[in-house]
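Progress against Task 2.4 (sequence-to-structure conversion) is shown through the following example record, which the project officer requested during the mid-term review.
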Amino acid sequence: MNQNLQSPLKTDVCIVGAGPGGALLSYLLNQKGISTILIERQPHLHKSFRGELLNVDGEAILSKHGLYSLIQERGALLLEEIQYWENGKSIHTVSPGNGESHVGIHVPQNHLLEAIVSHAQQHSTNEQVLFNTIMTGLLRDKSGKTVGINIRQNGVPAYIEASVIVGADGRYSAVRKHSGLIPEIRKHGYDLLWARIPAPVGWEPAVRMASMDGQQLALFSQFGGYVQIGWNIPEGAYSKLREKPIAPFVEKLVSAFPCLSDSVAANIQSWSDFVLLSVESSYCQSWAQDNVVLIGDAAHTMTPTGAFGLNAALEDADVLSELLVRMSADQFGSTAQLQELQTIRGAKVQQQLARQVEMESSFQQRYDPFFKTRLTR
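Structure tokens generated for the chain above:
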């Protein structure tokens, strides 16, 4: 429940960030009788977010805990294939793997979060959710030990005492900053322009790719009848790009996908109809320090390529919940087990980060003449 502060607040685990990873972790801990306070800087769960694709890993975790069916009730869209387009036509398709029914599932983030948080509130008294709440620092005792966090809710300073603090607060994590856990940041040579437009009639649910000026252009079908556009541009090029008229730019989009002509004309009329995302990935050499631990983008920021980020955060939350349940047996007297999260999850995360680099570097090969010739044999 969302409540006004009655300081001091005390809990077993304080989770900073009510995104998918933080919300799932709070729910799983509540099911085991572990109290949590989940804080969120926004006033509600309807946050603007663009990485909303579940893969089979994320779907499996949500199904494992009986949550995926609740999300389906609110609405989700199975994407049937990945298509590679050139000159307004599909030249190659990738179908779901053996035993799989999709290449991704679009789930609006508010559907996912509301399903998890509302279910937690219905079945547990161990969770408190505080909106309009910002972490301002770590709370330490006289010996320097971290015993909680300082916060500001609706502009009012307060604090939360907790045995464990979890940073689930994204790529610009306040928990990471205040705990001194430093990420290694990698630039990928491109930035990303996002836009969302209504899908034309008959638009089949799929991921569609095209090469535009040597850069990747990706379209993702979304629940509710929308198309999300992700358009790579050279890193740092946007300021110069937006000095030019937008018409020639969007004409390239229409030439790649002619059936979007009417929707593009009606919905992309200025540069302000795009949102710029600065693309980078990162990896913290240590995800935990004393009783502070990071999950999701706070520990390992991923690029949009491959849609790994959301699913990795859910996997982190699933593993960390099991560790915290074990730690609760001795009232969180020892926090050494927090290091095991990275031991268990680190190798897969690093593989995914490497896979993103490989996918980005090899994308253009699909449009090289030799590759296309092999596809059509």
